[in-house]
Design a protein that fits this description.
274 residues, alpha+beta, D-amino Acid Aminotransferase, Chain A, domain 2, 2 domains
Length: 274
């Protein structure tokens, strides 16, 4: 197990990880009533900080949680990086409901806010994926919300690892491609670049949006069979960027990091540079 960072940012203060404390009645712990954002800091700058804050506002509003201002969001991330002497980092900002009895939706006082910085480790050049035997419910109240209720993703990712893959892919209840545990999915079919619409239940990924805005992408329902049979496909996320898929269920894709994937990667880099 990797060593934990020495410091975290908790409710406005930098504290030692070993001394950070949450109430045993914290709703983020007892009932998963919380949301979070994960983003990268590299090359001397946050990657799409404002977009991540906008999505955090959406998640907090949907869950009825206190919304941190952009200034608090930015300051917490900067302070935790500085405290841990990091010049590049994978950053996570969590907001949970605060203290309350587990069997109620009532909480006492303010939300809990936590910022954590960990090393920004590189992904392998390509990724292998499996489609898991469980579905995303596109009608779930948490659909499209970056919630701390992450148990389903943990279970799915363990399934993928047990089958020799690094990411798990979900279909939704209609049998359409939805998303990965921490990624969005793009498929090349008949020369067109496709990705599931938000109505599929997938997360409104920040990198997903940047690729859509900077490339020619069609948002449409994608039968999961199309993905299983794909010749070329890739993942996107805030730490993966555009990440080529090399295999699905152990089947090597005929085209890995092909023209469509490379064009999307170049377009994303240009979009991030402004």
């Amino acid at each position: 197990m990797s060593a934990l960072p020495e410091f975290v940012w908790l409710n406005g203060d930098v504290v030692r990880t070993s001394e950070a404390r949450l109430s045993p009645f914290e709703h983020g712990f007892t009932v998963g009533n919380g949301v979070f954002e994960t983003l990268a800091f590299r090359d001397g700058a946050f990657v799409a900080l404002e977009r991540h804050h906008v999505r955090l506002i959406h998640s907090c509003t949907a869950m009825g949680l206190q919304v941190p201002s952009l200034e608090v969001f930015r300051a917490g991330l900067i302070e935790v990086m500085k405290a841990n002497s990091m010049t590049e980092a994978r950053l996570r900002f969590t907001v949970s409901a605060g203290e309350g009895l587990p069997a109620t939706n009532a909480v006492e006082g303010n939300a809990t806010m936590l910022a954590v910085a960990t090393p920004l480790k590189p992904w392998p050049p390509t990724e292998s994926v499996v489609i898991v035997p469980w579905t995303r419910n596109e009608h779930d109240p948490l659909a499209g919300i970056k919630s701390t209720s992450y148990g389903g993703n943990v279970r799915a990712l363990a399934h993928a690892k047990a089958h020799g893959s690094g990411e798990a892919i979900f279909a939704n209840t209609r049998g359409h491609l939805c998303e990965g545990t921490g990624s969005n999915v793009f498929v090349v079919r008949d020369g067109r670049l496709l990705t599931p619409p938000l109505s599929s239940g997938c997360l409104a990924g920040v990198t997903r949006a940047l690729v859509i805005e900077s490339s020619t992408v069609i948002e449409q329902d994608i039968p999961i069979e199309w993905f299983e049979q794909a010749n070329e496909a890739f993942l996107t996320s805030s730490t993966r960027d555009v990440h080529p898929i090399a295999a699905i269920h152990g089947r090597a894709l005929p085209v890995v990091n092909g023209e469509a994937t490379q064009r999307a990667a170049v377009a994303l880099r240009k979009a991030l540079l402004g």
